[in-house]
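User: Predict the complex with iron/sulfur cluster.
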Amino acid sequence: MNNRGYMGRILMVDLSKGEFREETIPDEVFEKFLSGTGLAAYLLYDRIPVGADPLGPENVLGFVSGLLTGTGSLFSGRWMVAGKSPLTGTWGDANCGGSFSPAIKRCGYDGIFFTGMSEKPVYLYIKDQKLKLMDASHLWGRDAIETEEMLQEEHGPGARVAVIGPAGERLSLISGICNDKGRIAARSGLGAVMGSKRLKALVLDGKKRITPYDRETVHKLSRKCNRWVRFQPLLGPSIVPALIGALLRVLPTAMAMDGVVYKIILRQWGTGGLNQMSPEWGDSPVKNWKGSNVDWPLKKSKSADPDLVNKSEFIKYHCYSCPLGCGGKCSMTGKYSETHKPEYESVLALGGLCMNEDTDSLFYLNELLNRAGMDTISAGATVAWAMECFEQGILTLDDTDGLDLTWGNTRAIVALIHKMINREGIGDILADGSRAAAEKIGRGSGKYTVHAGGQEPAMHDGRQDPGFAVHYCVEPTPGRHTIGSQLYYEMFQLWKKVRGLPKKLPFQIYHKNSKYRATEKHALETAACSKYMNVINGAGLCMFGAFLGVTRTPTFDWLNAATGWNKTPEEYMEIGKRIQTLKQAFNIRQGIDPRANRLSDRALGIPPQAQGANKGRTVPIEKMMEDYWGQFGWDPATGKPTGETLAGLGLSAE
Ligand code: SF4
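Assistant: Here is the predicted structure with iron/sulfur cluster placed in the model:
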């Protein structure tokens, strides 16, 4: 064990042979890649063979903690899972909060990696120094929450569990990995990779100490950060943000956002604070991305009114080391008595995207999908796509097992999602997401899919904020909203620490038209978001903490204090660039053409919408993608990192 915040060791588990191997990771690796997804990219780049079947034994699935996790830094409880995505065929990762991330380090590892494939269902159990692969036959088929409860009953409430539900077992390409009883690292389809390995769960119960280099400075920085989190003027009832959203829609100008405002929303309502605001200003896609705020006005979106949701909240919760606490548990009636407060993404994917106005169903589907371990974004988007196919006559009652997939038919939506989880009838086809379903169904249904490289984008519309559109297209894991946007750039406030970045002062007014121009300034901002989020994901920090701004959430200072390094912000951004480039090189090595991950035309405003908040808008995506790739020193025409760039970052071009 060292005193630099990280553990310096990983565990490799060969599920085919039932063998364990510990590896020491040299300090230089952490200095070049941090931990988290950076460490995973370093390890998996060439350990996953070229052409590996993502659901085959040669894929490697890694569970990694963050470099800052356990050091006393705030917001540092994110854990990450990484491997080759079966949904997109690209680099895949996902992350989640809760209490699982420190548990990895307390077992003495920065990451636990699985290769091979077990013959029968197993789970990994680590208690102090003892490692065991245990029989999971009695758990196979059970949902994620039931399984976690059974494992904690057997191994004690202190054991921390990551687990797949039936969706992962049935190799749904839109399945994720759950922890803390229904939270989920949902994206990239990595639940199916775990299912293919017949690995039901990880149960971690270690007691190792995590030692930062300079604990006093870490804590001093944390206390200062905490003062910003506690700053909480009351924003009023939820109609206030909804009306602000409407105002933002009608004004010809936009205003740069300060993340403190979003933090206030998060503390009052959680991410659900956007449930009515975002559709108003054009951030939420509606009706499979063909609708707008005109189709989903306040009288419809009130089905997920944040104050209404808060009324059913009986407890708030925080992830490990988080002072903000955007999570909550809500009570509900029916089969399940409670659920995690539905996130904005889930509400809009299962609500406005499908024109579903039934509040109870949003709670029920949230719980159902969390227990199944299926991604709410992709599940909702796939249902919305099926509804449009039904409207177009491509799918008929004969195809849908008699389900009337008319827009907003709540009973049909619920029944269809049950079928997807159970892989029954039409649900078997839809369980792998909209692109795979369209390939099987044919008949022109692909025209109505909205995806980037096979992954359905999240509920943030690139026609409102082109930064989202670019990141959906260019990220090595396409379709992701947790990396960057023009709004995120405003909130990160990186120019305050990193030289050479454009300033976008809080509440600065600018003309909306400027958002849709492919300029060098936008390219610099987009690239900066990707680099910074690689640092955030290497550190294991929560993106919502990063939204407070880089001077209030002192990412770089925490890293220096925890490790004893003395790196400049620019050097950390270079690390972010290295990680991003390595993930892109992973894709190139696996035969992925980066241009093929471009988002579907409809979500880019091709053709532009005729009405609503995003009326007349088109994202100049080709130029924006080229500019982004150019910023990284990758070939602007192909998105391939050049030999010179790879060499400059100390990466080999194998
Ligand atoms: S802000 Fe929310 S998601 Fe992020 S660490 Fe805190 S409680 Fe977890």
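The domain at 466-648 is CATH 1.10.599.10 (Aldehyde Ferredoxin Oxidoreductase Protein, subunit A; domain 3).
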